[in-house]
Amino acid sequence: MRAGAHPDTSDSGLDEFLSARPRLFGIAYRILGSAVEAEDIVQDAWLRWQNTDRAQIHEPAAFLTTVTTRLAINLAQSARVRRESYVGPWLPEPVDTTQDPHLGAERAEAVEMAVLLVMEKLNPTERAAYVLREAFDYPYRRVADILETSEANARQLVSRARKHLGAERKERVSAAAHRRLLEGFLSAARTGDLSTLEGLLTSDVVSYSDGGGIRGASRIPVIGRDHVSRYLAAFAPRFWPDAETRFVEANGRPAVLVARDDAPVALLCVDASEAGIERIMWVMNPVKLDPYVLSLGA
Q1: Which range among 41-55, 67-81, 92-106, 147-161 has the greatest average pLDDT?
Q2: Which helix (H) or strand (E) holds 188?
Q3: How far apart are CA 103 and CA 105, in angstroms?
Q4: What is the rounded CA–CA span in Å between residue 232 and residue 191?
Q5: Is 291 exposed, middle or buried (0-12, 13-18, 19+ CB in 10 A)?
């Protein structure tokens, strides 16, 4: 139905916006890797929608998707510059996907923490093309319209993104295998069991600690099985005593919430393949951690 089919000057277009909102957030979050920034983009899209002559819009959802994507691309371009001055490694802001109330994707593509992290190496337009095609299954012609490019170029953008992601990440394991590796890793990390850690990690494993400058978070990635294992073993006596752990879900994968005195101190996520754990991601920055914990409820 055409958005302006019922001429009512009091019509704010709210119903159309609320219907599209979950998808808009899902697109913006995947392009930006930040729930806060995605919310800002969705709010901006709402303002654009309010200031638009909706009687001329035949497909409200298509209009809102286009506006949201372009706004997210623009913000992603400036965000890349800001993240260059970020203190320590930058990780995506985690989201609770147990109910998937906001992400609105038909498929779970491009929502895992490790995928979002790797996607930071794509330029914003490549990232948007990949998200629209792989997560939301838009046809290439529609992707091209949204990105104001040719269909052939849209295909090239998605192809380049796929190749880059394929080169950076090995085939992921099942959710059950992921959970087993995470449980084994947690047990070994808590006790500083060096040999078990070495058996769980790949030779080129990388550990990232996103603390945004807080004390105790490593400001550089730790790389390689030997370095990561020894770092974790040395880290154990200082970090794990009196720590409480809780298995949760973050970005579609099992994760561990670490708390001390009922206050969250870290969210532990891993990226795993058949070869073992490839990436260890510690979200410790309260700016990212606290909203995630709040979203969990109890």
Answers
A1: 147-161
A2: helix 175-191
A3: 6
A4: 9
A5: middle
Q: What is the spatial distance between Cα 237 and Cα 281, in angstroms, rounded to a whole number?
A: 19
Q: What average pLDDT does the segment 54-66 reach? A: 93
Amino acid at 198: E
pTM above 0.85, yes or no: yes
Tokens found for residue 138: 């838009």
Q: Is 65 left (phi over 0), alpha (psi -120 to 50) or beta?
A: alpha
Short-list 8, 36, 33, 52, CA closest to 17: 52
pLDDT for residue 3? 39
- 249 - beta bridge partners? 254
How far, in Å, CA of 37 to CA of 188, rounded?
Answer: 36
Q: Where are the alpha helices (DSSP H) in 204-283?
A: 225-239
Contacts of 267 (CB under 8 A, 6+ apart): 94, 248, 250, 255, 256, 257, 258, 282, 283, 284, 289, 292
51, 130, 145 from 150: Cα distances, Å: 28, 15, 8
What distance in Å separates the CA atoms of residue 19 and residue 24, rounded to the nearest whole number? 10
Are 70 and 41 in contact by the 8 Å Cβ rule? The answer is no
- How do 243-250 and 222-223 pair as beta strands? unpaired
Tens digits of per-residue pLDDT, 166-217?
898 888 899 899 999 999 999 999 999 999 999 999 999 999 999 988 887 8
Q: For residue 15, what are the contacts with CB-CB under 8 A and spacing of at least 6?
A: none
Q: Using CB atoms within 10 A of its CB, is residue 224 exposed (0-12), middle (13-18) or buried (19+)? A: middle
Which two three-digit tokens encode residue 223?
A: 């790389």
